[in-house]
């Protein structure tokens, strides 16, 4: 320990004596380690941090699998949940849950509250602590059970002033009285579980004997003690076959069931992004290490006499290596400490700008910060980095030839590039890694450009959207909703500045429903349906509001009401897939028959028009089949289900800036219905959010790529500047013997560019293989895009040329007399 402290004191004395070197090395390390800390803090929050529930590794999602989706999706139907919860040999505490919006009308003004609709075992499954009262009983979770509610501690404090007498009181929620039976403790934050936290919970009240196959919620359970995941998955696989036998209309060939760990499901979409960013930021650190190693090698040359003297007075090679490694580790730890601060602050700033839709990071990234994992990671990286970049210089310095070093008074031995193989190799590595990062950045930038240039199928400019949760039994009937929509649209269309208005269940790019269909008169080849697609309810004026072209036939009008013949519009993708070169106008569809009890009264619908495709599943996904039905023709039972699970979305096209009319639009809707609206957003904002992950990737990769380019340029410049300084006498002699300035410049440029070109070639080879791993993150560009693989090497070569030209120019200006006098 005493020797270590002596080495540490000596290291800090050396840093003080060489302040420029110390500042440059710490800056490079702070950049590399800070960037790694920033990304790891997100990785820790999203991928590594356990869910804040009891035994989180035993929490599993029920999943649907198919030959197409592989990993599966966690959507649940009432019939599937009733089937899954019977698998008590492998699971327990099975619970269904979803988030909705309820109108609270007990205050001076109506207020929308986020509500969790959950089954009775939900609180037990996730270990929710009861602060006051109790949670739901199984009887309260049955159909037609009592209306009860459990509040969050936050809502109890904010809205009800922490009133201890709230238990037993009645709240009017969406027109129905609900008795408050409990309050959950403040430490329970289901936002960690994904999405926004509910402010209260109401019982799901699913029918255990249901046959409904509509997928509109998720369900999870806990593995029974001693049951491994593989055993539960095997049991669910068999359970899928049993379900298919019971409900053949609900399954296609290749469909099945499984369970997956909850945390794994949450992060599956974020994992590829974070792994790519982690690899990229690791390259930045390696480039920083190469830069600092080069600095140490340069400094080692100047310290040869010092090392030789230490060896001459008895210091062994191991002792010298330990001293030099102590210096490099101390440098790295200092850089790591600074990088830790700036890394965490930097990522918080970036996440406040764009959270990229990452799960488990909270609003504006508030859940990303310092914890023991981040601190440990930074400490390990700092020490490991110090050893990594310090080992080669330490080993080289400790092999000093005593006789040569003590005789050399200039400190210029080993001046040629041939004698600087280590430094040259490090520069080649820097250039290769920089090219890898720049290629990755360019591919992601081209992806973002491609997404922004994608035609979504609708015009997002000057469109304002908002949602309204419908309150009261009167809206369980389709006629009640239709009356509300007609009155609301009449008021909106009468506002000056409103160009078009409509109502729908589902705004483009924000998800929707899916239903199977049969084509009347066409024989079935396999299964009870010909296919399936997105199913959306819309009012007249919907296609005008979004400027979605009607390619054939006609759109909906006010005459397509409940007494009119049932009609449907389909999109071009569906027409091409199922009618190919034929005209589908006049054909008839039966949508969802036999899948849900709510569709028992659904009638055959005639196709009256074909509309342009809308990229509803994301700008990077090709449009699939879409079916649009008038909201006035939705069966009452299905309308009642829709009202309970999905607020009505209002869509208004304005002639000017849409937010400028937001207040007037909301006031008209409030006067029409007496209900509040929420989620007021422009469609341009909706589109922007749909590509937020890609923008986040581009933002970080651009920062990393620019840093790599700068570090690589500095590395080349540093090596060549040092080489020129070491070869001053040689260059002076060449000039004295008649060498022209152009010849000297050419000599230095060729030596430096040789290294740069080797680095570019090595980087191209690595990029050609590694960019295939980015394929899932790309759109509109191939992993081996020729333009990227031509432009990036050219840019890097030009930067290298500038970095080499500066010391080459200085070399050509060497005064022979001055150089020859130098000892």
β-strand amount: 15-25%
Q: Helicity range of the residues? A: 40-55%
- Low-pLDDT stretches: 409-419
Beginning-to-end CA distance, first to last residue: 42 Å
DSSP helix count? 24
- Biggest sheet overview: 11 strands, mixed
Output the radius of gyration.
Answer: 34 Å
Compute the number of strand runs. 22
Mean pLDDT: 86
* Shape by Cα distribution: elongated
* Classification by helices and strands: alpha+beta
Describe what you observe in this structure.
It is a single chain. Strands 1, 2, 3, 4, 5, 6, 7, 8, 9, 10 and 11 form an eleven-stranded mixed beta sheet that branches. Helix 13 packs across helix 23 (786-812). By secondary structure, the chain is α+β, with helices and mostly antiparallel strands. It starts with a helix and ends with a helix. The protein is built from 24 helices and 22 strands.
Top keywords for this entry?
823 residues, alpha+beta, eleven-stranded mixed sheet, six-stranded mixed beta barrel, 24 helices, 48% helix
Compact description:
The protein is α+β, with helices and mostly antiparallel strands.
């Amino acid at each position: 320990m005493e020797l270590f402290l002596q080495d540490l004191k000596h290291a800090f004395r050396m840093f003080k004596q060489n302040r420029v070197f110390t500042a440059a090395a710490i800056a490079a390390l702070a950049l590399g380690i800070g960037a790694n800390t920033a990304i790891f803090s997100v990785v820790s929050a999203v991928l590594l941090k356990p869910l804040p529930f009891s035994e989180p590794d035993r929490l599993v999602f029920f999943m649907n699998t198919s030959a197409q989706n592989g990993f599966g999706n966690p959507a649940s139907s009432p019939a599937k949940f009733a089937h899954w919860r019977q698998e008590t040999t492998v699971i327990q505490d099975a619970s269904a849950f979803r988030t909705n919006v309820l109108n609270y009308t007990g205050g001076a003004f109506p207020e929308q509250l986020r509500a969790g609709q959950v089954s009775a075992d939900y609180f037990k499954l996730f270990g929710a602590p009861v602060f006051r009262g109790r949670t739901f009983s199984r009887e309260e979770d049955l159909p037609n059970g009592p209306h009860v509610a459990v509040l969050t501690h936050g809502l109890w404090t904010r809205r009800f002033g922490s009133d201890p007498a709230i238990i037993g009181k009645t709240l009017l929620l969406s027109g129905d009285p609900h008795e408050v039976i409990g309050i959950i403790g403040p430490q329970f934050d289901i936002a960690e579980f994904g999405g926004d936290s509910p402010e209260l919970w109401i019982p799901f009240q699913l029918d255990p004997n249901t046959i409904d196959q509509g997928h509109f919620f998720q369900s999870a359970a806990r593995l029974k003690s001693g049951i491994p995941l593989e055993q539960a998955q095997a049991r669910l696989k068999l359970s899928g076959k049993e379900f298919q036998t019971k409900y053949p209309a609900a399954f296609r060939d290749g469909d099945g069931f499984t369970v997956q760990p909850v945390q794994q499901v949450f992060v599956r979409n974020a994992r590829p992004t974070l792994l790519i960013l982690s690899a990229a930021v690791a390259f930045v650190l390696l480039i920083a290490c190469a830069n600092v190693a080069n600095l140490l090698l340069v400094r080692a040359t100047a310290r040869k006499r010092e090392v030789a003297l230490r060896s001459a007075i008895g210091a062994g090679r191991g002792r010298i290596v330990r001293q030099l490694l102590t210096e490099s580790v101390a440098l790295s730890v200092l850089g790591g400490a600074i990088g830790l601060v700036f890394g965490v602050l930097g990522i918080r700033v970036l996440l406040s700008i764009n959270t990229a839709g990452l799960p488990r990071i909270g609003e504006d990234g508030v859940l990303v910060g310092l914890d023991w994992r981040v601190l440990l990671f930074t400490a390990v990286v700092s020490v490991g980095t110090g050893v990594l970049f310090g080992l080669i210089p330490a080993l080289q310095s400790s092999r000093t030839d005593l006789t040569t070093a003590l005789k050399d008074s200039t400190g210029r031995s080993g001046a040629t590039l041939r004698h600087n193989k280590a430094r040259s190799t490090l520069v080649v590595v820097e250039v290769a890694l920089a090219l890898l990062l720049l290629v990755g950045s360019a591919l992601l930038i081209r992806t973002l450009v491609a997404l922004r240039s994608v035609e979504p199928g609708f015009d997002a400019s000057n469109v304002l959207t908002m949602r309204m949760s419908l309150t009261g039994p009167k809206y369980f009937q389709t006629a009640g909703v239709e009356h509300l929509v007609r009155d609301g649209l009449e008021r909106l269309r009468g506002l000056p500045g409103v160009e078009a208005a409509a109502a729908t269940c589902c705004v483009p790019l924000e998800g929707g429903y899916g239903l199977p269909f049969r084509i009347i008169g066409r024989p079935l080849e396999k299964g009870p349906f010909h296919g399936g697609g997105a199913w959306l309810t819309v009012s007249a004026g919907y296609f005008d509001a979004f400027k979605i072209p009607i390619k054939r036939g006609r759109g909906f009008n006010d005459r397509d009401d409940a007494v009119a013949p049932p009609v449907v519009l389909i999109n071009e993708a569906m027409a091409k897939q199922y009618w190919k070169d034929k005209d589908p106008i006049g054909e008839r569809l039966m949508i969802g028959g036999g899948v849900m009890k709510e569709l028992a009264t659904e009638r055959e619908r005639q196709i009256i028009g074909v509309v342009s495709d809308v990229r509803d599943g994301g700008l990077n996904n090709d449009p699939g089949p879409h079916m649009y039905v008038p909201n006035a023709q939705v069966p009452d039972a299905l309308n009642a289900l829709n009202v309970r699970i999905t607020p009505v979305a209002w869509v208004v096209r304005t002639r000017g800036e849409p937010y400028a009319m937001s207040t007037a639009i909301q006031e008209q809707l409030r006067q029409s219905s007496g209900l509040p609206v929420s989620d007021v957003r422009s469609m341009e904002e909706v589109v922007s959010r749909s590509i937020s992950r890609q923008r986040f990737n581009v933002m970080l990769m651009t920062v990393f790529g620019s840093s790599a380019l700068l570090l690589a340029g500095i590395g080349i410049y540093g090596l060549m500047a040092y080489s020129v300084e070491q070869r001053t006498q040689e260059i002076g002699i060449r000039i004295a013997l008649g060498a022209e300035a152009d010849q000297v410049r050419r000599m230095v440029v060729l030596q430096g560019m040789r290294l740069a070109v080797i680095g570019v070639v090595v980087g191209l080879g690595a990029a050609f293989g590694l960019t295939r791993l980015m394929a899932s993150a790309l759109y509109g560009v191939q992993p081996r895009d020729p333009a990227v693989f031509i432009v990036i090497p050219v840019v890097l070569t030009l930067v290298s040329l500038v970095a080499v030209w500066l010391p080459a120019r200085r070399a050509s200006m060497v005064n022979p007399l001055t150089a020859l006098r130098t000892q």
